[in-house]
Amino acid sequence: MAFLELRGVSKGFGEGSRRSEVLRDISLDVGEGEFVAIVGYSGAGKSTLMSLCAGLSKPDRGSVLLGGKAVVGPGPDRGVVFQNYSLLPWLSVYENVYLAVDQVFRTWAPAKKREHTERFVEMVNLTPASAKKPAQLSGGMRQRVSVARALAMDPKVLLMDEPLSALDALTRPTLQDEIERIFLLSHKTVLLITNDVDEGIRLADRIIPLSAGPAATLGDPVIVDLPRPRDRRALNHNPRFKEIRAEIVRSLVQLGPKNRSSVRPEPRVAALDSRTVEVGA
Amino acid sequence: MSKSVSIFGKKVVWFLLPIVGTLFVLIGWSVLSATIAPNLPSPGKTWEMSRPYIVEPFAKRGELDQGILRFTWYSLLRVAQGYSLGLVIGIPLGFLLGMSKLFARCVDPTIQLLRPVSPLAWLPLGLVLFQKPDPAATFSIAMCSMWPTVLNTALGVRSVPEDYMNVARVLKLSAWKRLVKIILPAALPYMFTGFRLSLGIAWLVIVAAEMLTGAPGVGGFLWQEYNSLIYEHIILCIITIGAVGFVLDRLMGLVERRFQTA
Fold first, then answer.
1. Across the strands, what pairs with A160?
2. What share of chain B is helix, strand, coil (3-state, %, to 5)?
3. Which of A21, A116, B202, B241 is surrounded by the most beta carbons within 10 Å?
4. Candidate from B166, B171, B172 with C-beta closest to A82
5. Could you give the angle at the alpha carbon of A163 between the alpha carbons of A161 and A167, nearest 5°?
6. Does B68 touch chain A (CB under 8 A)?
7. Domains of chain A: which residue ranges?
């Protein structure tokens, strides 16, 4: 039984002749405890898709279901990790997470709320920085606070909208490791949206390409049957990893924009074997 | 060795420059009053005539013959009343304008009409409504000074980043909690800009209001001395008004830093 389900979802913006269809007929099943990644082009509608799953916007056609029930609006049962972190700058790390805990678990005693908050701050390894404000944190740390806040709500599903896009290439792998570790610890259902194929394969159980816009649709999913936990250095030399990667890239190129002058130039497909997964230690 | 001397030298020069500038202004003033503007009292004469008011700033010799700080105090009290009233009306109005597009559209023509009205026009209306000069002055100050607070608060509310509102939506914060925990802290820097501008206007208005009503205060004293032909005191009042305005602005800056949020 699908836990998070999208059935024939379409979404567009604008009126009449200036209407642009962003997503067309998206259908998606995420099983409980599954980690699904959607990989796509920039501007294809990835954030729109996430917004629909979170209930922050409504589809024009089709439906979004969580545990069989229709999603009518946003709520803490769908924890969102935003691309821009969305931390409140006047609150410290602890207070940002506490805000969510206080709101979701209103009936709890203050001591219990405090302990719960501290546990999640510790889970993302930010206890030493607990009293700091977001402005005093690096991008990677801010994103970790965002993840802690989303998880502290004890959501049914964790929605991550390009959470690592704003980070540099050296910090990204470290945060990817964190996400996998937290996933294995928390047993949450996760939907990750990313523009990085390698990130998707590294983290997900199943990876689905999203075609280029307008009217983006989902391509065929690819099962990532690599055993966990995954060592990102070893993955470089893993033949199955390379196969999966080739398949996804091929899908993406097929689903790419009609004019060839955009994201993925073809020669890269041929150079797969010699490319390394990550930069830095 | 020579490097530290030159750094010291630079600091001395930097410290002296404002003093030199002010000296030139005083010299210019003396020259003007000695030559083309004989009616303008010279700096020397101004000091001589002002001494009793400055040296005994808290003396009270008569209703309109008091030390300069006593007058300042009366003016500040009136400003406090009018300014507070302006904030009490202006802040909620600003929030309403920022949060409801409907309300903004309804009320916008009225605001645009009332905003440019000078205190000198509000004062007679105030006297008609309240009959007495002090409530009229408070009313005028409120009506004139509240606009920057209203408009900057509205701007601040409208400028709350969508991201923060999405957080509020995901957390399902109640409307009140959303206002107090997210909109208010996010809008506070804009609001303080409004507060600062409003305070400046309030101080401006009180002087005009006192001049028109003759109430004891810096403005009242100024107008009275003009009528009594003691022009040196006009200049004393001008300097006092400027100095107090500057101090008020600085104080507001300190408060702003204390409550810094976003």
1. A81, A192
2. 80, 0, 15
3. B202
4. B166
5. 145
6. no
7. 1-77+158-166+186-281
Residue A230 burial (10 A CB sphere; 0-12, 13-18, 19+): middle
Q: Which residue has the higher pLDDT, B55 or B112?
A: B112
Shortest distance between the Cα of A223 and any Cα of chain B, in A, equals 31
Number of H helices, E strands in chain B: 11, 2
* Token pair in block for residue A143: 């994103």
What separation, in Å, do the N-terminal and C-terminal C-alpha atoms of chain A show? 40
For residue B134, the model assigns a pLDDT of 84
Q: Which of B172, B177, B181 sits opposite A75 (nearest CB)?
A: B172
The residue assigned the tokens 């029930």 is A69
Kindly list the domain boundaries of chain B, sorted by start residue. Answer: 2-40, 55-258
ipTM: 0.80
What single string gives the DSSP state of each residue in A44-97?
SSHHHHHHHHHTSS--SEEEEEETTEEP-S--TTEEEE-TT----TTS-HHHHH
Secondary structure letter of residue A134 according to DSSP: G
Residue with tokens 């159980």: A205
Distance from CA of A87 to the nearest CA of B (A): 8
Closest alpha carbon within chain B to A98: B171
Q: CB within 8 A of B81, min separation 6: which ones?
A: B138, B141
**Main-chain dihedrals φ then ψ at residue A145, nearest 5 degrees:** -60, -40
DSSP A213: S
Candidates A81, A87, A99, A160, partner chain B, best to mutate (most B CBs within 10 A): A99
Give the mean model confidence (pLDDT) for residues B95-99.
93
**Could you name the CATH architecture of A1-77+158-166+186-281?**
3-Layer(aba) Sandwich (3.40)
Strand-pair partners of A10:
A61
Mean residue pLDDT across chain A = 85
Q: Has residue A160 got a pLDDT over 50?
A: yes
Q: Give B181's contacts (C-beta < 8 A, 6+ positions apart).
A: A88, A99, B168, B173
Q: Nearest Cβ partner of A82 from B163, B173, B182?
A: B163
Edge to edge, the sheet with strand A20-31 lists A20-31, A2-13, A61-66, A69-70
d(CA A214, CA A219): 14
- Fold for domain B55-258? MetI-like fold (1.10.3720)
